[in-house]
Amino acid sequence: MTGKMKSRWADDEEDAAADAARKREKEEKRRAKAEKQRIADEAALKAQQAAAAVADAQSEENQTELSNRPSKRRKLSPEREEGGEKASGGGEVKLLRFPVGGWKRCRSVEEYEKLNDIEEGAYGWVSRARDSATGQVVALKRLKMDNANDGIPVTGLREIQTLMDCEHPNIVALREVVVGEDTRKIENIFLVLDFLEHDLKTLLEEMPEPFLTSEIKTLLQQLVSGVLYLHNTWILHRDLKTSNLLLNNRGVLKIADFGMARYFGDPPPKMTQLVVTLWYRAPELLLGTERYGTAVDMWSVGCIFGELLTKEPLLQGKNEVDELSKIFELCGIPTEESWPGFRRLPNARSLRLPKNPVSQGSVLRAKFPFLTASGSELLISLLSLNPAKRPSAKEVLEHGFFREDPKPKSREMFPTFPSKAGQEKRRRRGTPNAPVRGKVGEIGAVDFSGIFAGREEEERGGGFSLKLI
Amino acid sequence: MAHLTNPLATPSQLYALTTLNSPLPIDLQHSIRFYTARLTQAAGLLLRLPQDITAQANVLLYRYWLVDPLLAWEFSDVSAATLYLTAKISASPRTLRSITNVYTYLLSLPTFPSPTTPAPTAPPDPESYYLSETAYTTYRNRLLNIEGQILNALSFTTHVSLPHPLAITYLQTLSIFSLPPAVSTRVAKRTIAHLNTALLSPQMLYLTHQPPALATAAIYLAAREEGVKLPDGEWWTVFDVEREELGFLCVGMRSLEGFVEEERRRWEGRGVLTREGVRGEMGKLGLNNEVGNGVEEDEESQMARLLDEKVGAVST
């Protein structure tokens, strides 16, 4: 009883014995460690000597047998010592390391709980869903399996590949790819993407008034930073348009829909000109070039800029020819000086253009009278007919337009809008879809000389015209 | 970033390989990987595909076999499906008809073409590798199914960064090309040869090491073999490679010669390696042949069971 009632801290013989045992143990450990160290040292010394001997023997061999052997080989051992010294001295070499991914079997789509449908794009259906495990709301995009004879469509594979390689705040993130429950045949493939409340196209349609200039600057800046990242990563988006730009309620814009995207190189490889939705398609694509580059995306950026200003798509052509004539109407007629070599493009040979072209930019300036000088300078440069004259994404970001008043609105101050995608089914939109791969529309002999016919009679000026009697 | 890095195999994936492919002995696993990768290489040549596509296809092939068992599908089918898939997303796609034609041809050869076997004197009879329209359709559907399986197993990670272009940049950085052209060309060729051979490595070097390390090791070996002096000091750290990793890779790359010799002794003179051939070999080794077939049977019986369950669920 007494033993039990005694204080826990009392020092009795039991404790003393335990203490002694512990001390002994510790000492033994220390001794063992020292012994080990000594053995290791000895071994290391031996190994070093052996290595030196081998190296010497080798170098001798080299000298006798292969006289052309470089002297470099003999330097290995001293180098190692140098390295050792460095390491012990703390002067370690810093090596660059990147985070590394892996691969494992896809998860099942059953891990997500479908909330509602959002829209149908050219490359699949999108619905809003919730991750059953984390409760996060995401967008599930189902890949269309069009041509079963070719297997999984190349557009979908490219979209997955390019999106997986992208990590940027202004590009929609691909979290994972999931497949249907039945994996004996892989037919149902879903991309799990960030969910954003709006797409810019629907938003512009619903808004009573266009965005403020400060808001346009914020949107444009985010769009162009995303495009800059893509181009720096050697990716061409090739389908930039307002319906592919998503916006959340915190004022963040993200580029989506990479169904047309692909890697490019320098010099650019031969690529199809059947890219980019017609209203946002650059003139060199319409004229049938096979070698193009980042400038096609910059043209689309220009079209989006114009659309943000007026809420209306800038160049709503009915077909390739009509689109081209609308472009020439707005941006002027290309000449051999303004666009050297454009005549040699496949579809340009048959063009008949008016003899006395109006200067580029004047029509554009008249169309956007409220834009500042630097703003219209940026827009006009983005809509240069000659792709070489369009500014790069980097140049746009550095443009004075973003530095002058009104300054870009901070994202926190950005207005919010009622979310359509949240609950309601969206309307199908009027934008034509990106071209389907395969057939290339031929622009035959077309007469464009009529575009500016009658310009002289029309005269400049708004409400009245001067006529000399 | 993605242009310099690859996803890598996890230690647990590598560790699980033995159970994944049991009871297939390790050396047979190595043979399957080696010969199937060589089959891809041969098909790539016949399809006139750029080497980077073929190389990427072989990396995807090895990645796939880290998730699914080697005996899940016929080896040549997995090779054809990876090659088709890789070419499809590249700038030089090939039609399924061309791919099935080339593989039918390669499978019809009595001996697998190799640099050491003498080329046959007479060209093979075209009848022997003719692929009829119906046979093509079944072949195509089989490949498309495997394509889906491969993508599913890889979680659609089709991106492969190759060390080859990096190696050229590194050689430039090391001023190899300022040497006499004869010397520098030899070093560059040797470097690329090492990188291509490493694709066949049983150690699956492309799944365990990043492109900069592979490129550096290939340059180290090539320069040594060609007797070219590289800078003093630890130049490999400039390319973010540790001495330890460099040493490991050099040993790995050098060991391939012996490995290939071994494989050649074992399989020389035979046609394309098939599942049947592997099962025969297992029988010869006294390994339980039924177990080898058991993998297949297991899968089939499992499928049947799943089907029964589904039917049962529907009818109740």
What does this 3D model show about the protein?
Chain A: One of its GO terms (molecular function) is ATP binding. Chain A: This is cyclin-dependent kinase. Chain A: It catalyses: L-threonyl-[protein] + ATP = O-phospho-L-threonyl-[protein] + ADP + H(+); L-seryl-[protein] + ATP = O-phospho-L-seryl-[protein] + ADP + H(+). The complex is a heterodimer of chains A (about 475) and B (about 325). Chain A is of the alpha+beta class. Chain A is built from 14 helices and eleven strands. The longest helix of chain A has about 55 residues. The C terminus of chain A is likely disordered. Chain B has about 325 residues and is mainly alpha-helical. Chain B has two domains: about 150 residues, Cyclin A, domain 1 (Orthogonal Bundle); about 90 residues, Orthogonal Bundle (Cyclin A, domain 1), CATH 1.10.472. Helices cover about 65% and strands about 0% of the residues of chain B. Chain B starts with 10 loop residues before the first helix and ends with a helix. Chains A and B meet through α4 and β5 of A and α5 and α7 of B.
Secondary-structure topology with pairs:
The complex is a heterodimer of chains A (469) and B (316).
Chain A lengths: L1 H4 L7 H53 L10 H14 L17 E2 L3 E10 L2 E8 L5 E7 L10 H11 L9 E6 L9 E6 L3 E2 H7 L6 H20 L2 E2 L8 E3 L5 E3 L6 E2 L19 H4 L8 H16 L9 H12 L30 H6 L5 H10 L10 H5 L22 H4 L31 H4 L11
Parallel strand pairs in A: 1-5
Antiparallel strand pairs in A: 2-3, 3-4, 4-6, 5-6, 7-9, 8-11, 9-10
Chain B lengths: L10 H5 L1 H5 L4 H21 L4 H14 L10 H15 L6 H13 L24 H21 L10 H10 L7 H18 L6 H4 L2 H16 L16 H12 L1 H12 L7 H10 L4 H27 L1
